[in-house]
Design goal:
This protein is of the alpha+beta class and 173 residues long. Helices cover 29% and strands 28% of the residues. The radius of gyration is 24 Å and the shape is globular. It starts with a helix and ends in a 15-residue tail after the last helix.
């Protein structure tokens, strides 16, 4: 009887060790995950407007900068660093002259958003993306994530803005 009890205790202890070490090893693998987001955050087109931007030069784009509810709350409260769960989206469009509007104005002065040139996201998860300042980065074209090589410049560029928790856009209420 003692032998069976001892065997059962050993099996329970062994099962406990396996149960506790398996999640720990899975978590360790997550911490080495790349700093790139590979899925479009659901509902991003319904988020609130944070600001708009125009990037001149070779980019020549117009952008709508949107934020989820966590981002909007942090912006409104001036909360830095941004809390985990913050997601900021940048919808980039071409900057195209509008012949139709220019006819109305009588001169070339009107530009409108052209075809989407890409959508970018910053996702705040200070544990998962600790190696990149707590932010995961993403670029999507036609609904598909860009390759990892094209996104290697995200963190080095954003790391130049430490005072604003790596975020370039200021809130324009």
């Amino acid at each position: 009887m003692k032998g069976i009890t001892l065997l059962l205790v050993a099996v329970v202890i062994l099962a406990g060790i396996i149960a506790f070490t398996a999640p720990a090893s899975l978590h360790a693998d997550d911490s080495t995950a790349p700093a790139f987001v590979t899925k479009l955050p659901p509902g991003y087109r319904d988020w609130k407007l944070i600001s708009v931007s125009h990037e001149a030069g070779t980019l020549n784009s117009l952008s709508a900068i949107l934020g989820n509810d966590v981002a909007i709350k942090a912006y409104r409260e001036g909360k830095l660093p941004y809390p985990d769960g913050t997601i900021i989206a940048a919808l980039h469009y071409g900057h195209d002259p509008s012949a139709e509007n220019n006819k109305v104005f009588g001169r070339a002065q009107s530009f409108v958003p052209g075809p989407t040139t890409g959508i970018q996201f910053m996702v705040k998860d200070s544990t998962k993306y600790a190696a990149t300042g707590g932010w995961g980065f993403a670029t999507f074209k036609d609904g598909k994530p860009a390759d990892a090589a094209s996104m290697k410049s995200c963190f080095p560029c954003h790391s130049k803005a430490p005072a604003s928790d790596l975020v370039f856009t200021h809130y324009a209420p």
